[in-house]
Amino acid sequence: MNIKPLCDRVLIKQVEAEETTKSGIILAGSAKEKPQVFEVIAVGPGGVVDGKEVVMTVEVGNRVITSKYSGTEVKADGTEYTIVRQSDIIAIVD
After folding, report:
1. Which residues, in sequence order, are CB contacts of 34 under 8 Å at separation 6+?
2. How far apart (Å, rounded) are the C-alpha atoms in residues 90 and 68?
């Protein structure tokens, strides 16, 4: 299944949690924090949304942080994705 976001929507996928700490300690599954960093998988074309011109500033491959409870979760081909508005993205991570 191919998911193509419309208007100002962005398709993102959660980045997997690191399994070791910076000091090299391996974490058990229950000790891992759920990361709030996502990878941009697809970007809508932008356009006029609610009477305002929206220019898309995120690109496929960017790593981003979103508002905590934003978006709609979808599952395709066994993979979980989230669709958010570009305005729900609060930072691009380098």
Report:
1. 14, 17
2. 10
